[in-house]
# Entry
Amino acid sequence: MPDPTSVSPSEGLPPGASPVSITARPTPAPIPHERDDYSGAFTPDFRYEDLSKPALVRLVREFAQAVHLLDRSMCAAIGMSHGGAEVQRLAIEEWRGASPVYGERLREIMNIEGNGVSAIFKVLQLDPGFPHHYLDVRYELIDESHGFFELAYCGALMDAEPWGEKMVTSMCHHIEDGTFDYTAQAVNPKAHIKHVHRPPRVPSDQSPHCRWEITIDEDNETVPEADITKIVRGTTAATFKYPPMRDGTPHIPTKHSIETGR
# Structure
């Protein structure tokens, strides 16, 4: 019997045939070690998933705070050019246009099911317009048709109060009344949010700063979708689809990804 190590690779093949060449699969690029910060060398292909959980929490907090900084900048620019009445009108348009759309995206990626009060509260807990701690929101779920939330501390109110009662009333009355139901009704068209109490604060150190009640009832009026919301829905910002993460985890969770953690 011939020694296998001495057999030519082409031995036994038909005339003119070439031996099969087996090429090893390329080794996949290693997934970077989770980073606790971004000190050290610049990483050209940096991705958010390269960060550790504490680093991601820090980043999400600052991203939510950036939403308020962008809003302050926009409102200040409008006020300087066109006055306070236009600030109020356009702030309402801004939140009516954006919050129903990004709220739906948040529900999808976080697998928030149902259309009761708990689902609305979950969206508010994730809403970048409600940055944790800067807006210290406390929630009280009575049942799926009834609940309360209050702000033990409101950083936005701290910005408004030095400008006087007119500014406070504009934000806490006119803007909130013009936007809260649009946010809630993106989850349930029969949801309604109304104030229990709200600023101007009496006494001036009143705490919590405000308290709100949410109900879901067939008798509640459904607000029509605002024209600005329809426009925002058609933008690439609203329709953009994120690719999977480095390890293949889908951006929008599937049943399999939830069960396996990927």
User: Anything to note?
Assistant: The mean pLDDT is 90. The chain has one domain: 51-236. The longest strand covers residues 135-143. The chain has nine helices and four strands.
